[in-house]
Amino acid sequence: MLHTNLSLADSLYEEMHDPEMSIQDSEGNLYRTVKIGAQTWLADNLRTTRYQDGSLIRTAFIPEDDPDNLLPYGRLYDWHDVSDERNLCPVGWRVASDEDWKTLEHTLGIAEKDIESTGWRGDDDIAITLKAAQPDSLLRSFDQARINLTGFSARPAGVKWKGWYITQGAYTEFWTRTEATPAKAFARTLAYSWWNTHKGEIRRATLGKDGMFSVRCVKE
Question: Quick count: other Cβ atoms within 10 Å of Cβ 40?
């Protein structure tokens, strides 16, 4: 059973300073939370520039270096910072692992035979239940009643890759803290662009550790 303990309306961002509704990180940023199955997740992308011990994070870029993007999209981090033992999540939280994401995907309904697969996975447009919005297009229409059904509120922040900001509005990539090879780690992708045929699916992939992606934390 999917459950959200918060309204999905964007107007809730204006109420994030209510301590009864939010979690605070080491530099005072506040985040909404959402319960999905047995897990509790942050319902916003991480925005901190400091680890739990107060030390500065080396990456932590705002998409397009535009301050107006900080609240809706959070910051972008490379995997080396994401996996650092100093932990960039709030106290009592951790960067979601590949296993945490698989648990979430199982809750959403991805078939057991597909959980360990890489590539785009999931039937019945399950990915739209994680997205803050997914407009219809000439190629696809969606059951708008299922948009953001989980309250996860994912937004297409894009990435920073080799010094360039790309794919904002079209994709979001979430790092996991799980290493795949010495050069790559596991990540999750959601697609938003009108021409992409995988907008209803979640991609599990191994990507280069120097890419700067969004981060979600899960409660320990």
Answer: 17
